[in-house]
Amino acid sequence: MSTLEIAALVFALLTVLLAGGVWIAISMGIAAWFALGLFTSSPPQVNLFQAFWGSSASWTIAALPLFVWMGEILYRTRLSEEMFEGLSPWLQWLPGRLMHVNIFGCGIFAAVSGSSSATCATIAKVALPELKRRGYDEKMCLGSLCGAGTLGLLIPPSIVMIVYAIAAEVSILKMFLAGVLPGLLLVALFSGAIAIWALLHPDRTPREVQRFSFRERLRRSRNLFPCLALIAFVMGSMFTGWATATEAASFGVLGALAIAGWSGGLTRESFWASLMGATRLSCMILFILGGAAFLSSAMAFTGIPKALAEWVASLGVSRFELIAVLALVYLLLGTALDGISMIVLTTSVVLPMVEAAGFDLVWFGIFIVILVEIAELTPPLGFNLFVLQTMSGRDSNYVALAALPFFLLMVVALVLLVAFPELATWLPELVIRKTAA
Amino acid sequence: MRRFLDRLYAASGALAALCLASIAAVMLAQAFLREAGRLLRGADDIVAWLCAAAAFLALGHTFRKGELVRVGLLIERLSPRARHAAEIVALAIALVFAGFMVWAVLAFVYDSFRFNEVSQGLIRIPIWIPQASVAVGVTIFFVAVLDEFVVVLRRGKPAYQVAEDERRAAQDFTETV
Q1: pTM for the full model?
Q2: Residue A437 pLDDT exceeds 70
Q3: Nearest CB to A62; choose among B23, B31, B93
Q4: ipTM confidence
C-alpha cells in the first residue's frame, strides 16, 4: 500500500469515529493505534505513554491551566456589571453610543480571558438586557456581541494560541505578541462598522444621552482600574521578558483572586467552582493534546505528512491558492469541530505543507486563530451563536443572521492578514529584537 | 457501589484541582524567590509533574461531567432509540481504547519501576513516582467509562448527558473555549 493510500484509510477511520460521536481524543488515539500497529514496527503502547506523558508533563504547558483558571475566577466576579458601568460614560459620544460597550467590553475581557464563549457570555450578561431596555437595536447588539466575543481567542492570553504554539512548536510569547495587532484591527473594524451603521440609520440609536463630568466618569469606572492594572502587569511582565508565560499566568491567577476578593465576589463556593471548572477544561484540552501527540507520532512513523506535503508540492499550486484552499477547509471543519480539535487534528499534516510553501508558522497560527473565531459564528455549531441564542431567547437563524455582518468583517480581517503579513509578524520581531539587544 | 464510585470520581477530581492550585503556588514561589535572589531548585520539574497529575487525575470526573469534547452534530439528530444504540457503540469503542491505555500505561510505569529509572532534571527521584498519577488517572477513567457503559446498557441516561442538560439549564458556558 502506498503512503497516500494509508493516509486515506487512517483519515476515513478518523472521520467515521468522529462522526459517530466517539470522544475526540479517543478517536485520535484509535487512529494512531491502528496506523502504528498495522503499518509500522513501532510498538503503539510505548508511543502512547510517551505522547500522553510528554504532552502534559511539561513546564511550558502549565501556562494553559493557569490562564484557564484566571479566566474562570474573573468570569465569576462582578466584572460584567462593572464593565458596563465603567465603559458606558466614555463611549457615549461615538455614533452608535452604548453599542460600542459590546466591542470594548469584549476587547478588555479578552485580555484577561483566553476563551471566546466566556468573553461573549460575560459581556452579554449585562450589556444585552441593558441595551435592550434602553431601546437599542437588538440585531446589531447580538451580532456585535457574537463577533466581539471571539476576541477572547485573538487578544492574549488565549487558550487556543497556547494549544497552537504547543502543536506547532513555536513560542507561546511570540503567538501572544502576534495576536495583539490583529486583535486591535478587529476592534477597529467592529467599532467602525457600528459607527457607520449608526450614521446610516440615525433612528435606530436611542437619543438619550447622559452627560457626565470627567470626575464622574472616573468615579464610575474606578472598579475597572484593578482589572486594567492586572492586564498591564501580566502582559508587561511577559512582553518585557521579565517573566515567562507560565509565571505571568500565575501572577494572573493571584491578581484575579485579589480582584475577586476586593470586589466581594470571592466566596469559598466561587473559589472552588472556578478551580474545578478550570481543572475540567484543562483536563479536556490536555487529553486532546495527548491524543493529538499520539496521532502525530503515528503520522511521523508512517511518513504521511511528508508524503502529503510532497504530493501538494507536486500539484504546483501557488502559495495563495494553498492558503485559500486551507481557509476553505478550516471554514468547513469549523461547522463540525470545536477550535481546539480543529487545530490539533490538522497541524501534523498541514504545518509541513505550509512551511514548505514558505509561510511563517507564527503568522499561520494567527491565520488559523481567526478562522477558529469565524467558526464560532457559523451555524450549526458556532458556540457564540449558541451562547447568545440561549441568553436572548431568540432562535438560531435570527442570531446567525445578526452575526452575518460581523462574520464578513472577520473575513475582511483575514484577507488583510494575508495581504499584510506584518500585521502578525511585526510586533513579535520588534519585541524580540529589543529584548535580545 | 454507586456511592463509592461517585466518591471516587469526586475525590480524584478534587485531587487534580489541588494539583492545579499547587502549580500556581510553586510558580509564584519561584518568581518571588528569584526576585529575592534565591533559587527554588527543581521547581520546573515539580510543575511539570503536577500538570500531568492535574490532567490525568481529573479524567474520570471530567468525562462524567460531559466536558470531554465529541462531535455531537450527527448523534444529536438521531431518534431516541438510534441515539441509545449510538451511545452504546461509542462507549464500547471508548472502553476498548481506555483498556488499551490502562495496559500501555501500567506496563510502561511498571518498567520504570522495575529498571529503577531516575528522572532527568534537578530533582532525582524514581520516575515511576510522578508517572503513577497517570496510571491512577487512566485506571479511574477506565472505571468511569465502564460505569457509563453499564448504565447505558441498562437503558439509563449517561451521567455526561445529565450533566450537559444541567449546564444548559443553568446557562453555564464555561466548558469550552
Answers
A1: 0.94
A2: no
A3: B23
A4: 0.96
